Amino acid sequence: MLPRIERRRELDHRMFYLSPVLAVALTIVTGFLLFLAMGYDPLQGVFHFFVSPLLSGYGLAELGLKAGPLILIGVGLALGFRANVWNIGAEGQLTMGAVAGGGIALALWGVDGFWVLPLMCLAGILGGMAYAAIPAFLKARFDVNEILTSLMLTYVATLFLSMLVYGPWRDPMGFNFPQSRMFTESAILPVVLAGTRLHLGVIVALLVAVTGWVLMTRTIIGFQIRVVGQAPAAAAFAGFSRTRMIWLTLMTSGGLAGLAGLFEVAGPIGQLIPVITPGYGFTAIIVAFLGRLNPLGIIPAGLIMALSYIGGENAQVEVGTPQAMTGVFQGMLLFFLLASDFLVRYRIRLQAPGTPAAARAEAPAE
Amino acid sequence: MSSEFAFVLTLVTVISAATPLLLAALGELVTERSGVLNLGVEGMMLAGAVSGFAVTVSTGSVALGVLAAALAGMLMAFVFGVLTLSLMANQVATGLALTIFGIGLSSLIGAGFVGIPVTPLPKLHIPVISSLPVVGPLLFSHDALIYLSIALTVGVAWFLKRTRWGMVLRAVGESDESAHSIGYNVIAVRYLAVVFGGFASGLAGAFLSLSYTPMWIEHMTAGRGWIALALVVFSSWRPLRLLFGAYLFGGVTILQLYAQGAGIGVPAQIMSMLPYVATIIVLTVIAAGPWRARLDAPACLGKPFRPAT
Amino acid sequence: MATAMNGGDGAVATPRLELRGISKKFPGVLANDRVSLSVAPGEIHALLGENGAGKSTLVKMIYGVLHPDAGEMFWHGEPVTVPDPHTARKLGIGLIFQHFSLFEAMTVLENIALGVDDATDMKSLAQRVRDVSRAYGLPLDPHREVHTLSVGERQRIEIVRCLLQSPQLLIMDEPTSVLTPQEVERLFETLRQLSKEGVSILYISHKLEEIKALCDRATILRGGRVVAECDPEKETAKSMAQMMIGAELRTLSRRAPRGESREARLKVKGLNLEADHAFGVSLKDIGFAVAPGEIFGIAGVAGNGQTELFEALTGERIAAMPHDVTIDGKPAGRLGAAARRRLGMCSVPEERNGHAAVPEMTLVENFVLSGYRRMKLLRRGFLRADAAAELAGRVVEKFNVKTPGTGASAGSLSGGNLQKYIVGREIVQEPGVLVVSQPTWGVDAGAATAIHQALFTLAEKGTAVVVISQDLDELLTLSDRLAVINLGTLSRSMVTAEASIDEIGLLMGGLHGMTEHQPAHGRKGGAHVA
Fold first, then answer.
1. pLDDT per residue as tens digits for the range B243-252
2. How far is CA C58 from the centre of its chain?
3. Sign of the C-alpha dihedral, residues A165, A167, A170, A176?
4. How close A338 comes to chain B (CA, Å)?
5. A338 vs chain C: nearest CA distance in angstroms?
C-alpha cells in the first residue's frame, strides 16, 4: 500500500512544538555521521560539541552570554516574520547600534557617571532603529523588497564600522591595530555572575522575550501583526494598517538588534573592533524559526544556537574539528526544522483509504 | 593609442565582473519564471565556487572543476526543491537556510584550500582574430564561461519566448492551478527550473574561484548572490534586459576598483559600499518608477502549490 | 452525423461514456460514493446537484485531474483509466472549468496552445482558432492578452480550446454562473449545434430552468451519491429541487417592502475611484442611496468594478471627498475601514478565506478581527479573550454553525458554515449599514436560505443592506431595489418588482464583443428555487 499524504484540516499543535525537537535530534545524528565521515571520533565529537559545554559553570555562563544577543535579536525578528516583514539585515542594525552606542562611550571616554551606560543603550537602540528605518521607509513608501535592502545595508554597515576603526576612531596608543580605545569603567556592562563574563544583557534579553510574548498573545498590536502576516486582505478588511506594521516591526527588530550590538561592545569586547559578532544577526533568523516565532520559544532556541557556537569552539580545541562546523550545523538544523514542519500540516497514512461506508460516518454533516 | 588600450582593458574587466552576476541571475530568472523564489543564490554560488576550486586543485583539470561546480549548485538547488516543492516549506525561510548552509559548508570544505594557487580557466585564443586591435581583446579573448554566459542568456530568451516548453514554464509561474488542471505537472516543471537555477549559480561560483579571482577565499561571493536577485527584479524577468543590468553592475564594480586605485581621497570602504548602495537605489527606482516593473512578476512567485490527486 | 438523443430514451447500444461505482474520498469528506452514469452520443446530459454535492469532483476524475479511489470508467464500451488530462483529450474529452484555467498575462493564442496537445506551429494554430470561432460564432482575437477580456470572452477561449480538438464529449462545469442572460442564450445555441453534430455534452449546473431548457436527461447528485435520474422536460423545477436537496425547501418569510420616505442611512454620490492595479476597473460617478430597512441589490457580471465598489464602500480604499460616502448623515468618504465601522457600517467580503476571515485563526480570533471595536473587546490595548469567546459562541449558536467549537480554525469549516459564521458575526454587531458581497457564493441551499433569511430579519430591524451579487436570481429574491454595474458605472436603480430581465441583461453588458450578433431573447422569468 502506497503511503498517502493528506492535508490536515487543523494544524497539528503537538507536532508544531515537537518539530524543533525532532530537528535538533536529526542534526545531532547527522553530526555524528559527519564526524565519522570526516575521520573524527564521532562520540567524542558529539560529546564535545553538544554536551561538555553544559557540564561546567563557566560553560553555562558562556552559553548565557551568547544566548543573550541571539534572544534579543530573535524576538525582534520573530515579530517581523509574523507580519511577513523579512528583516534579514539584523547584523547591520547590530553593527550600527554598536557604532552609535560605542561612539557615545568613546565621546565620554573617562567620564564617570551612572548615566553613561543608559545613554549608550539608548544610542544603541536608536542606532539600530535608524538603520532599520531605511528598509522600512523604502518598503512602506515604494514597496521595495526589504529582504534585499536590509541585507545590502549589512555589507554597508560592516564597511562603515571598518572605516571608523581603521580611521578616525582608531586607538592612538593601539600600535596601529584597527580598534578603538578600550571603554572606561562606567561604559562597561556590570557582570551578574562573579568570575564569569555573563553580564546584565542576558537579563534584559529574558525580560524582552517575556514582554514580546505578552505583546503577541494578549494585545491588539500582536493580533494585528499576526493578521497582517497571515492574511493581508483580512487585515485591510479589519482596517489594520500594513504600513504601520512594517514600521513597528522593523523599528522593534532594528532597535533590539542595535541594543544587542551595544551589549557586545560594552560587554565581552569592551571596545570597537572591525568584526563584533560571529554572525549573530543571521543566526538569530534560525533562532526565530526554531523558537516557532514565539518569543518564549525563542529562549530555548537561543540557548541551543549559543551551544552551537560554544560547542564548535570546544570541539575544535578537544577533537580538532574545523571551526566551520558551527555554520554547517546551524544550516542543517534549519533545513531539518523546515522539513519536519511538513508533519504539522500534513499527515502520512499508510493504510488503505477508508471504505466508502466507513468514511461516510466521518463526513461532516452539512 | 594607449588610452584606447586602457579603455578596452576596462571593458574587458567589466565583462569579467559582470559574468558571475549574469550567470547567477539568469538561473534565478528561470526559477522565478516558474513561480519559485529561491533566495539561496549566494549559498549555491559558494557551493559551486568551493567545489570547482577543490576539484580543479585535486584533479588538475579545470573542466572537471567547472563540472563539479555545476553539480554542486544543482545538488543544493535540489535540496531546496525537496523542501519547498515536496515538503511545502516556506520559500523565503528555505532560501535563507540554503545561504546559511552554503556559507558554512563552503568554509568547511574550503578550509584546506585557502591560499593555494590554481591554474585559472584558459582564455580561448583564436589565431588572427584574437590579435585584432580593440575587437580582438574585447570580443575574442575570453574564457569559455564568459561565452557560455552570453550564449545561455540568448538561449534562455529564445526558450522562454519561442518554445513550447518555455511557454509551459511561464504558464506554471503564471497560474499553477490552471496549469495543473489542464494537465501539466507543475511540481516537475518547478523542480527542473529550480535545478537549472542551481546549475547556473554553480557556474557563477566556478567563474569566481577559477577565473575572476582566481583562488578560494571564505565567503568570496560577498553578496553577489543577493545582487543577482535584485538584478532579476531590475530585468522585469526578461533575459536580455538582465544582460544589460549585469553589465551595468559589472561597470559599477570596476568603477569602484579604479577609483580606489586612483586614490581620490575617499576612504576605500566608502568606494566598496558602491555596489550595495547602487543595488538599493536601483531597486527603489524600479519600484517607484513609472515602469512599475514589478507588475511583470510571475503571478505565483513564492506561493506554495500542492495538487490534490 | 448522429441524430440527437431524445430525452428519456436510455436504450442506446453503446454509451459514449459510462461510469460504474466511482468513489472518491478527501480527508474527512466522501466526495463521490459509488456514482454511476452514462452519456449517449449526441446527448446533452445534466449533472445536477447543489454546491458540495460532488459534481466538480466527478468531472475532474473523468478528465484525469483527480483519480478515483474505486470504480470503473468505460469509453465507447471499452474500460479506460485516465491518468491525466492529456489522455482525456486524446480520448476526445474536453472540459470547460467553472473557474477558468486561463493565464492572465498570456495571449489568447498561447492559452489555447497550452491546452492543445498537437499545437506546434503558432501560425497555423491561429488560423485554426479563427476557423473554429467563425464556425461556432465565438469571435476571438488570438493576440489579445487574457486580462483585457470580459468573463464571457474568457469562456469563449475555453470553448474554442476544447473544440479545436474535435471532442466527442464536452463537459461544462457551471458555465452560465458568470454570463449575462443574453450570453447564456447564445451559449445554448452553440451547445445545441454541437449536439446535432453528434457531440455529447455533460452539463453541470444547479440552475433548474436552464436544465429544463437544454438537457435531454439529468442525473441528480446529493451528498456524493446518485439519488435520481430523470427527464427534465417531464419534471418541474420544484420536483427537481426536492430531489436535489432531499427535503422541502424552507420558504423565506418575505417582509413588506419599505417606503423610501425616511432619511437614507447610506448615501453614495459622485464616487470616482481609479483602478489600483493593471487588471482593475475604475469606478465612475457612482451614486445611490439606501433607506433604513431597505435591501439594495447591485447586479453585474464579474470584473465590472464590484471589487472596487465594495472596497470603496467599506473603506478598504478611501474616496477622494468626505461626502462621496455618507453613513447616517456623517461624511465617511475619507475614513478607513475601522472608522467606518465605528459609524455603524459592517461588511461581508466575497472571499471567505483570507479576506473575511483568517483561515489559520480560530473562530474567536476571527470574531475579534471585525468586532473588537463595536463590541468593545479591548481594555487598554489588551484583548478581552472571555468576552470574545462568548460572542463567538453566540454567533455559532444563533446561526447554527456546525463546528467542533469556537476554538476550531476558520479554515477547517465547510464553505456554508464559515459563511454563516461570517454573516452572523457582522449581524450580531447590529450594524446600521451592512454591505455584503456574494453572500451565498458556493454555499449549499440550506445555508443560502438561512443567510437570506438573516438578511431579511436584519433589514426589518431598520438596517440598510447593500447586496453585491453576480447571481441575478439571488438579487431578485432579496432586493427591494437594484441597479447594475457595468465597466465601473452604476445604472439607475429600479424597483425589483417592476424590473424586466431583458433590460437588466442588457445593462449587464449584453453580449460582450458580440456586436455583429442580434441580442438574443432573455430568459423567461427569474428562475430560482429558494
1. 999 999 999 8
2. 19
3. positive
4. 6
5. 19
